[in-house]
Amino acid sequence: MFTVNSFMESKIKGEKITMLTAYDYSMAKIVDGSSIDSILVGDSLGMVVQGYESTLEVTMEDMIYHCRAVRRGTKNAFVVGDLPFMSYHISTEDAIRNAGRLIQEGKVHGVKLEGGVEIADKVKAIINAQIPVMGHIGLTPQSVNMFGGFKVQGNEVQRARKVIADAIALEKAGAFAIVLEAIPGKLAKLISEKIAIPTIGIGAGKHCDGQVLVLNDLLGMYSDFTPKFAKRYGNLSREITTFIGQYVNEVKQGSFPEEKHTFDINEDLLKILRDE
Ligand SMILES: Nc1nc(=O)c2c([nH]1)NC[C@@H]1CN(c3ccc(C(=O)N[C@@H](CCC(=O)O)C(=O)O)cc3)CN21
Ligand SMILES: CC(C)C(=O)C(=O)O
Ligand SMILES: [Mg+2]
Questions:
Q1: Section 118-143 average pLDDT
Q2: Which parts are annotated binding residues?
Q3: Pocket of ligand 1, candidates 55, 153, 225, 229: which has the most ligand atoms within 8 Å of its Cβ, to mutate?
Q4: Which residues, listed in sequence order, are joined to residue 167 by a DSSP beta bridge?
Q5: Which amino acids are annotated catalytic?
Q6: How far are the Cα atoms of 105, 146, 148 from residue 95, in angstroms, in the given order?
Q7: What is the ipTM of this complex?
Q8: What phi and psi, each to the nearest 5 degrees, are found at residue 115?
Q9: 237 has a pLDDT exceeding 90
Q10: Residue 223 binned pLDDT confidence (cut-offs 50, 70, 90)
Q11: How far apart are the C-alpha atoms of 175 and 257, rounded to whole Å?
Q12: What are phi and psi of 80, to 5 degrees?
């Protein structure tokens, strides 16, 4: 079992932390069975599962639904659930209540919030409620309208200083790890050396203490856009299309289903039915 303590232990040992998203039971079971350290039920499900253009529409109810499904398929991985847009922005009370809902109803082991300096108080309050918090800074997708798109962060000196200040604020607040998304690799290296808690990179280079990726991107099962950092290890969309094509052909030709896919009936019973 990978626990909240394993994050820091991995950093100390110099062992890279592996994390992938999953949004449902079947995929979570495969990911969990593949010796992944941690599973993220990301609000990226708004784009990948629900088909929205951003993560902003995702609700607490959506997150709870997917977190519960993922947890049923997980035995070993540490499961983190994203707090969705507007679930922690209004007040600290809201932040604690919604983090608590993800734990209690979504059954996850920890929660992730986007932001640094400006949400450090909320992070502290959630941790005081005994809920482990993962930070997320750099390209925070819930800020897409402020950034003017999904843009790499930290290329100007003020932005880079802000990302460093955010990392330090989250470490001070007690976060157990921080996702660094879409920042220059050398900035991520600097931050990873500066703070004691592990950094989990996505589009932040190889010097982070761990890596996270959207599962559908890795599998080649999402094609609306492909961020530069999303390595495709295969093309599952193409394979699925091939399988479905075979199914369609076989049904049309009558070669599926075969005898072995069909249930038998007792011959005496059949005779009775025929004679009626
Ligand atoms: N499938 C999927 N993968 C992700 O990594 C992901 C999501 N969805 N949804 C939530 C956010 C959105 N993310 C994104 C989306 C687009 C880019 C992108 O197109 N980036 C450009 C650079 C743009 C610029 O800096 O101007 C790139 O080429 O990578 C990056 C991250 C990352 N997250
Ligand atoms: C991209 C990762 C870090 C995320 O927040 C998500 O999948 O929602
Ligand atoms: Mg997210």
A1: 98
A2: 43-44, 82, 112, 114
A3: 225
A4: none
A5: 181
A6: 15, 21, 26
A7: 0.95
A8: 125, 165
A9: yes
A10: confident
A11: 54
A12: -110, 135
Asked if residue 214 has its Cβ within 6 Å of ligand 1, the reply is yes
Q: Is 227 helix (H, G, I), strand (E, B) or coil?
A: coil
The dihedral over CA atoms of 89, 92, 93, 98, expressed in degrees to the nearest 10, equals 50
**Residue 133: alpha-carbon gap to chain centroid:** 14
d(C-alpha 154, C-alpha 138), whole Å? 7
Which of 62, 26, 25 has its CA nearest to residue 43?
62
Phi/psi of residue 224, nearest 5 degrees: -65, -35
Backbone phi and psi for residue 17, each to the nearest 5 degrees, phi listed first: -95, 135
Q: Indicate the CATH number for domain 4-234.
A: 3.20.20.60
- How far is the centre of ligand 1, averaged over its atoms, from the C-alpha of 71 (Å)? 26
Copy the structure tokens of residue 50. Answer: 């629900």
Domain boundaries defined on the chain: 4-234, 239-275
Query: Tokens representing 35?
Result: 């010796």
pLDDT digits 0-9 by tens, 248-273: 999 999 999 999 999 999 999 999 99
Written as one letter, the residue type at 128 is N
pLDDT in tens, 105-117: 999 999 999 999 9
227, 44 Cβ separation under 8 angstroms: no
Residue 224 buriedness (CB in 10 A; 0-12 / 13-18 / 19+): exposed
Predicted TM-score (pTM) of the model is 0.96
Cα(37) to centroid of ligand 1, in Å? 23
Which of 123, 145, 149, 135 has the alpha carbon at shortest distance from 225?
149
Distance CA(192)–CA(228), nearest Å, equals 21
CA–CA dist 173, 152 (Å, integer): 25
